[in-house]
């Protein structure tokens, strides 16, 4: 309680007022309540699974519930609502998002799919709420600190989940109807954290790794800024059983080292040598155990995928399952050739889809971009790709302009995330990527000298 009082006292003392774009003084009423609401939105986004909530014809998840509470706060505090709208209008990314919003609207109307509007619209609204909350209420520094703390929690929890052999989140927090179930491959349990699938947890871990490398005080990026956390997160990735995530994380490590300064590059190389040595010792000790062979199976499965070998079979991998999974994904791009899909008007969100190619029935779209085409057709797919490419371009531009490790981390995490989506759907993990984006955009607003606001609460 003392810590909370200190935070509130700090907010009251330093941030009683803020200045909007036209520099009109605007008092932020009920600061304590607003801080609590935004804090719960950020923490709830990270921690609470999609299958936790209240089912009333639709699922009222933690994020949606916080959306409603914050909207209610905006309605009773017109000055804050005005400031929020001005921020949205000021941001360049808003104008890049407009084409995608237009596609959402006409798809909703033409397909009479209200879910298309609400589900996609709420995701965008949540992104802006997070940007506003992080920039003007919670603060970039505090948000990164919380993100690192939550990453530690899940890194440790993942090990506990693997030992337990089941998802404790699913066991104790499944309060709405869900198809989520525990996953296994080649006789081994695959951890999934707060997500609905191990592949989804892999996407979250890629984002956590980017955040774990941030040195906020120096605004630098360093692979072994938090060595224990990096090791635990990497172990979690191995235990998800996701080949795509495991392959991409090595690329992510390389990118982090590339964006580091010369001193941190040398430290990272020394750290990698130490990590390899520890891994060799680990395998020498546990080679003939279940966990030792499982780790080798995961690593060799990535090698098999890249070089078309079969080393993973020596460690118990079911090559038929892996081959079927790979062959299944090869059929997905052929969906673009289907004549009965309208290339200009998509089918909307949550529209059932199935097609058969050469005797293979496609029902699960394990490629986000193919899924975008099905939902929003070419206009929506292209519009959304332009949105995240613009976001990544902005991150890289700021990273070089300010020599910012925070911006570089956001860019690397986002590139890793969207690159992974070639092999998987988002699996309800966009909220994690939007948190990373929100941290960047909030930081960018902080750095933007043309938009001076005195209510940074970090």
UniProtKB/TrEMBL annotation:
Range of residues in the leader sequence: none
Domain of life assignment: Bacteria
Thylakoid listed as a keyword: no
Keywords: Membrane, Transmembrane, Transmembrane helix
Keyword Ribonucleoprotein set for record: no
Membrane-spanning ranges: 33-52, 64-81, 93-111, 117-138, 150-169, 199-216, 269-287, 376-393, 405-423
Name of the featured protein: O-antigen ligase like membrane protein
Organism: Acetitomaculum ruminis DSM 5522
Organism lineage: Bacteria, Bacillati, Bacillota, Clostridia, Lachnospirales
């Amino acid at each position: 309680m003392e810590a909370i009082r200190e935070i509130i006292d700090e907010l009251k003392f330093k941030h009683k007022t803020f200045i909007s774009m036209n520099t009109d003084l605007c008092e932020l009423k009920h600061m304590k309540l607003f801080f609590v609401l935004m804090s719960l939105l950020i923490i709830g986004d990270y921690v609470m699974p999609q299958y936790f909530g209240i089912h009333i014809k639709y699922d009222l998840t933690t994020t949606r519930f916080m959306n409603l509470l914050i909207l209610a706060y905006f309605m009773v505090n017109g000055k804050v609502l005005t400031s929020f709208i001005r921020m949205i209008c000021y941001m360049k990314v808003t104008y890049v998002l407009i084409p995608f919003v237009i596609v959402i609207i006409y798809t909703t109307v033409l397909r009479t799919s209200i879910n298309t509007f609400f589900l996609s619209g709420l995701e965008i609204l949540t992104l802006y709420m997070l940007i506003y909350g992080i920039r003007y209420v919670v603060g970039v520094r505090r948000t990164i600190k919380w993100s690192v703390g939550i990453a530690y929690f899940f890194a440790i929890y993942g090990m506990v989940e693997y030992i337990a052999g089941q998802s404790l989140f699913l066991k104790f927090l499944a309060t709405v109807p869900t198809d989520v179930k525990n996953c296994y491959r080649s006789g081994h349990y695959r951890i999934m954290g707060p997500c609905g699938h191990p592949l989804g947890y892999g996407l979250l871990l890629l984002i956590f790794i980017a955040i774990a490398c941030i040195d906020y005080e120096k605004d630098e990026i360093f692979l072994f800024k938090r060595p224990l956390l990096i090791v635990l997160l990497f172990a979690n990735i191995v235990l998800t059983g996701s080949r795509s995530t495991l392959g991409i994380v090595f690329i992510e490590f390389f990118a982090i080292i590339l964006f580091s300064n010369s001193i941190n590059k040398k430290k990272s190389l020394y750290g990698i040598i130490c990590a390899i040595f520890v891994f060799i010792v680990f395998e020498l000790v546990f080679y003939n155990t279940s966990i030792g062979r499982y780790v080798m199976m995961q690593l060799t499965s990535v090698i098999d995928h890249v070089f078309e070998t079969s080393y993973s079979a020596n460690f118990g991998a079911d090559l038929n399952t892996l081959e079927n999974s790979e062959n299944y994904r090869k059929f997905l791009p052929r969906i673009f050739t289907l004549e009965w899909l309208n290339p200009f008007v998509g089918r909307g969100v949550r529209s059932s889809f199935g097609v058969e190619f050469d005797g293979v029935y496609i029902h699960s779209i394990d490629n986000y971009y193919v899924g975008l085409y099905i939902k929003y057709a070419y206009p929506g797919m292209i519009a959304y790709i332009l949105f995240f490419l613009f976001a990544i371009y902005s991150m890289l531009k700021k990273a070089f302009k300010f020599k910012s490790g925070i911006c570089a981390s956001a860019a690397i995490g986002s590139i890793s995330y969207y690159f992974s989506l070639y092999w998987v759907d988002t699996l309800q993990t966009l909220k994690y990527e939007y948190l990373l984006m929100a941290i960047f955009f909030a930081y960018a607003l902080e750095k933007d000298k043309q938009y001076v606001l005195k209510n940074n609460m970090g």
